[in-house]
Design a protein that fits this description.
Strand content: 15-25%
Helix content: 25-40%
Structural class: alpha/beta
Distance between the termini: 14 Å
Number of helices: 19
Radius of gyration: 23 Å
């Protein structure tokens, strides 16, 4: 059996100018990065402002080590829609180097449902993440330089909240002390690093509508507090212009293609368990303007990526989804039912029945909280039995939701045609999309509604620190902002060990972060880290390149 990278390297790609032409992008708007990838000038958005294709969100059950295949399904669905004659554009996030070299691997799909050039997308791509890291660290350097050069803004070094970042899993950098070595080397203070995809600059880039909006958001970033306890912003340091200059090209969406030649916009990559987990607003809008259908995905399970897509991104961008695809595998559901990974290939209807509530809660949230039409896409494995498939269909039908078997990993767009037909049908149904919480809800009420309405928990507890921060943010005028939950991706709760659809739990918010530039408050729960670490055997150990420059070991 071929690996993902072997499949990707075996397919002949079309020149990117041909892909652009099919998407309706004139060459004057195209900035080529070699033969097979390009950036699209933002001025195209103004030219196509009157067009609005239907928006399809692909999300999934709570992830397990068994895998679900959300990105693979997103790509295969788009290829399937193209095969049934629909003009479709797929919009995805860019992969982070941390997971690529860690344990999760890349994020370009799998099997015969991938975006290419796979190796370049998973590694440096067009340099967007490097630009984001540079802008983030420029601000950090300007903060410390301002303090060193006399500190006219009276920034309290003990209350600098802005961290440096690097796009790599590096636990060693979570906490550090810098400015050591004497007066000439700066002011000593406690510092730390976030991974780039969890940085506020990543969120700012993905939520900006253009350069002017980008600069305004950068100016609003809170970098810390002065000795009087008042917030200090990046605009006061006169940093926004230079940061925007570093980000001007990164703000432009990247055009690539699927293995079958479907146009794909791959742009931005915030983590969904820490940040808001969606590709950029400009890429999503461009996909809607260029296609009759835009297929996008949001990271991890629907309690994280989809909740943030719907409550944060759609709120900011005025997006109205037409349909939602909920991805699941019978193997993963059996794992939620308590079955060990090595036994997942065996028929076990009891374990499946115990794990199904996870899928049903996610589906119910989409239907009952957000009032959106939904279809369940089951990624079929050879070990799935007819009895197990029938049980999933029966349970989902009780919620008024159809189940479609997906074989896009093995068959590409052909294996996604049945799913495409159902999605097109759903897109024609009217919906009354609504948010989980309202703008005017107090911060604690927004968090409580997410926990009780989406997670299925009983309530929320705030640490003394979080309660104090909440009072401070309200006093500063930030109480109206949406909430971005930072939570384990492996459970509806804040405890990664509670699988399935747990009940009766309480989520503990240990601290809050203000992301005034991005426009939301981050609520950190459980043991979630904003800088991951590498596993005992990182994927990096298996990645190599030969004399011809051919990369191997990516997955």
């Amino acid at each position: 059996m071929k690996t993902d990278i072997e499949i990707a390297q075996s397919v002949r790609m079309r020149p990117i100018v041909q892909v652009a032409d099919e998407a309706g992008i004139a060459e004057e708007y195209l900035e080529q990065y070699g033969k097979y990838k390009a950036k699209i000038d933002l001025s195209l958005l103004k030219k196509t402002a009157q067009k609005q294709g239907k928006l399809i969100l692909v999300t999934a059950i709570t992830p397990t080590p068994a895998g679900e295949g959300k990105t693979t399904t997103t790509i295969g669905l788009a290829d399937g829609m193209r095969r049934i004659g629909k003009k479709v554009i797929v919009a995805l996030r860019e992969p982070s180097l941390g997971p690529v070299f860690g344990v999760k691997g890349g994020a370009a799909g799998g099997g015969y449902a991938q975006v290419v050039p796979m190796e370049e997308i998973n590694l440096h791509f067009t340099g967007d993440f490097h630009a984001i890291s540079a802008a983030n660290n420029l601000l950090a350097a300007m903060i410390d330089n301002h303090i060193y050069q006399g500190n006219a803004l009276q920034i309290d070094p003990r209350r600098v909240t802005w961290k440096r970042c690097v796009d790599m899993n590096d636990r060693q950098l979570r906490f550090c002390i810098d400015g050591l070595g004497g007066k000439a080397n700066g002011v000593p203070r406690e510092d730390g690093y976030d991974i780039t995809v969890a940085s506020e600059i990543m969120a700012v880039l993905c939520l900006s509508n253009g350069i002017s909006d980008l600069k305004e958001r950068l100016s609003r970033i809170v970098i810390g507090y002065n000795y009087s306890g008042k917030p200090v912003m990046a605009g006061q340091l006169k940093a926004a212009g230079a940061m925007a200059a570093l980000l001007k090209d990164a703000l432009k969406p990247n055009l690539v293609q699927t293995l079958e030649g479907t146009p794909a916009l791959v742009h931005g990559g915030p983590f969904a368990n820490i940040a808001h987990g969606c590709n950029s607003i400009v890429a999503t809008k461009m996909a809607q303007r260029l296609g009759d259908y835009a297929v996008t995905e949001a990271g991890f399970g629907a309690d994280l990526g989809a909740e943030k897509f719907l409550d944060i991104k759609c709120r900011f961008a005025g997006l109205q989804p037409s349909a939602v695809v909920m991805v699941a595998t019978i193997r993963a559901l059996k794992m939620h039912g308590g079955l060990r990974k090595e036994l997942l290939g065996e028929k076990n209807v009891d374990a499946l029945e115990k794990g199904l509530p996870n899928l049903l809660r996610h589906v119910s949230n989409i239907r009952s909280v957000y009032h959106l039409p939904c279809v369940v896409a089951v990624n079929r494995f050879p070990t799935d039995t007819e009895e197990e498939i029938a049980l999933v269909i029966q349970k989902c039908r009780s919620l008024g939701v159809n189940v479609v078997l997906s074989e896009v990993w093995a068959k590409g767009g052909e294996g996604g045609m049945a799913l495409a037909e159902e999605v097109v049908r759903l897109c024609e149904q009217p919906n009354t999309f609504s948010f989980c919480y309202e703008d005017e809800d107090p911060l604690e009420e927004k968090i409580r509604k997410i926990v009780t309405r989406i997670y299925g928990g009983e309530g929320v507890e705030f640490s003394a620190e979080a309660a104090k921060q909440m009072r401070g943010f309200k006093k500063m005028g930030y109480g109206h902002l949406p909430v971005c939950m930072a939570k384990t991706q492996y459970s509806f709760s804040d405890n990664a060990k509670l699988l399935g659809a747990p009940e009766g739990f309480t989520v503990t918010v240990r601290s809050l972060r203000i992301c005034a530039g991005a426009g939301f408050i981050v609520a950190l729960t459980g043991e979630i880290m904003t800088m991951p670490g590498l596993p005992k055997v990182p994927a990096a150990e298996n990645i190599d390149v030969d004399e011809e420059g051919v990369i191997s070991g990516l997955f």
